[in-house]
Amino acid sequence: MADWPYENRSGKRAEYTCDVLVLGGGLAGCHAAVAAAEAGRRVILVEKGAVIRSGSAGTGFDHWEMACTNPGCRITPEEMTEALVSEQDHYGNRIAHYIEAREGYDRLMDLEKIGGKVRDTGDEFAGAAFRDEKTKLLYAYDYTNRYTLRVWGSTFKPALLRRLKALDVTVLDRTEATALLYADREGRRQCTGAIGMEVRTGEIRVISAKATVLCMSRPARIWLFNADTPGLCEFRPFQSIGSGHAMAWRIGAEFTMMEKSVRGEFSAAGRSFPPYGTGNNHNTWYAATMVDSRGVEIPYVDRDGRELKSVDERYRPAPGQKFFLKGGVIDEPKYEWRGPETLPFDELIRRGYRLPFYADLSRMPDAERRVIWGLMVGEEGKTKIPILKNYTDRGFDPQKHVLQSYGTGWQSAAFLDQERQLFGAPGGLMHDWDLKTNIDGLYAAGDQLYASDCAGFACATGHYAGRKAADAALQLEEVCPDPAQVENEVNRLLAPLDVRRGMDWREVNMACAKAMQNYCGGIRCDDLLHQGLDLIQSLRTEALHEVSAHNPHELMRIHEVSDILDVCELIYRACLARACSCAPLFFERSDSREEMRTQEDGFLTLSNWDGEIRTRMIPHDYAGDLVTSYTERNRDYMRSREGQV
Question: 605 with 256: CB under 8 angstroms?
């Protein structure tokens, strides 16, 4: 521990108790903790970083999707939920999407009350087509139906931290959660808390809780990793790698859609330019004017292929089209829901447009230019300093300069087929209408859920899960941590400190990524998958024990790699369990057993029950009627929101 600036407390322990334990301090975790504390429960929030700026939205985000109950919206929560699920060929999360559509705007109003900036209070965009002059709300993408709001997302996390402090929530910053505690009682398994490590001092923290809410990130650094530039490996924060998935997998929690992976989009890893840092017309940059190398404008077309003549038309549904989906996870929706978009790349080349292409904001109305290069590029994650400030400081002026587009769409690179990510409504924990897992006392929200979405999704499901966990804490009795579980976990966590002159954690992470690319890439088959699973298991049993740590930070990185290996096993097991190709899940087998297709039409779930891999099939419509199911479980909440705007 020489030259380490913090006190060495490795092996020392601190014990905590609470009613509701929240793991993860991003948007979902903060809202879960707020909801449970407002219900009168004793709450502890555990966050690997620092809550004030932690999580995928810690540095900001530019838009809030599915605000279906805002005063200007013309789409009902039911219509929006069914559209999203239909777009995903029924592999969407009807329960969580409906919670987002039904409660998302409520959460935005809560954020405004505690200091988040939601409206154009300074009249910066007065008179713009996307602004409602009465409410001063700014809309994005579909200006007719107004279900997506532009927001100043960088103001939200500091406001949430102030609220947590006002509610006396115990916040354990810089504490990595490493394992869930549990007890088996009368044939049921109950989560009883968690173990963590303070990442600066190495102190072990044992937390017992009646109910626990998992609000950690989706997995990352699985297929793509660059040991030379590790900080560029993911769009999300580098430390957000899916530890919640690994912890839940180890105690028997049930997952679904973990066989789904898409070709790389946001990972740099030496393969792409910074997201949102190149000219394009997707998501944050929608609907930027695009030109070719001669300055010839590239036309937009509507759902029916009609070329659009004005910028305003790009933000409107086609004649006879109710609405279109745009932004976040839904960027290239199917024909019936497609919004205005440029022509396909091959068609552009056939028509004579010349590479390279550029985004030319100078050809857009002043308000549209300023809202893209300013609010949108600036508030979205990782853009305020690296993109907006740095480009501006170096002379980029959107009124007279164009910005080159690389790769395809918003990806900023053309990734190889084997370079995959868990992106675009990926797999996650299976749950019921309370966002409860199959483990008693264990709830999930945000990116822990299958088919997760963006900021509004995280906030809405986080608050919802926090309410349900608070209710459960009144029914569940506190169970003391199992000493054997604690000892086993402490030994596992500290073992790398005893390795002298071992490997660096980056070597194992790189080996893991190569194993996933080679054996679980674009095309799968049983032989490849079994070889890959064997390799992942050998990395755990052999290579991981040869990695050394010299301080708690390196120790944390080793724990992350261990969790990545667990997530890789989960993915391999899910791929082996699905016997035939499934286009909606981007899952292709060279040995597809087509006779199994009808049997696999649903959510294939799997769990690791003390080494036994259990699977089952759940029908796509298991959520039942949305309005009835939601209402019967949330009458108190609905009464509490009556009359609020």
Answer: yes
CA dist 370 and 138 (Å) reads 13
Tens digits of per-residue pLDDT, 404-451? 987 654 455 678 889 898 988 999 999 999 999 999 999 999 999 999
DSSP labels for 120-156?
-TT-TTTT-TTB-TTT--EE-S-TTT---EE-BGGGH
Phi/psi for 209 (5° steps) reads -150, 150
Helix/strand/coil for 242: coil
Q: Which two tokens stand for residue 508?
A: 């194992």
Cβ neighbours for 186, distance < 8 A, ≥ 6 positions apart: none
Residues 6+ apart with CB under 8 A from 555: 197, 199, 202, 493, 494, 496, 497, 549
- At residue 372's C-alpha, the angle toward residues 370 and 375, to 5°, is 80
Pairwise CA distance, residues 286 & 281, whole Å: 5
Torsion (CA) 434, 437, 442, 443 in degrees, nearest 10: -40
Measured distance CA(414)–CA(451) in Å, rounded: 24
Omega prior to 574 cis, within 30 of 0 = no
Instruction: Tell me the H-state helices in 309-365.
Output: 345-350
E strands along 125-266, which residues? Answer: 138-139, 149-150, 170-172, 175-185, 188-198, 204-214, 255-256, 262-263
Residue 324 · residue 339 · CB < 8 Å: yes
Identify which of 474, 470, 475, 479 has the alpha carbon closest to the alpha carbon of residue 435.
470
Look at the alpha carbons of 293, 295, 296, 300 in this order and tell me if their dihedral is positive or negative.
positive
CA R_g for the chain = 24
Q: Where are the beta strands (DSSP E) in 33-148?
A: 43-46, 63-64, 138-139
Q: Per-residue pLDDT tens for 569-598?
A: 999 999 999 999 999 999 999 999 887 777
Two structure tokens written together for 308: 């659009």
Q: What angle do CA 110, 114, 118 make, to 5 degrees?
A: 65
Positive or negative, the Cα torsion across 24, 28, 30, 32?
negative
DSSP tag of 389: I
Residue 492 exposed, middle or buried by CB count within 10 Å (0-12, 13-18, 19+):
middle
Cα 329 to Cα 326: distance, rounded to the nearest angstrom = 8
Beta strands 138-139 and 523-524: pairing type?
Answer: unpaired
| Cα–Cα distance for residue pair 187/482, rounded to 1 Å | 17
Q: Quick one: DSSP state of residue 308?
A: P
Closest CA to 159 of 58, 287, 245: 58
Residue 581 to residues 340, 586, 598, 611: CA-CA distances in angstroms? 31, 8, 12, 26
Question: What does pTM read for this prediction?
Answer: 0.96
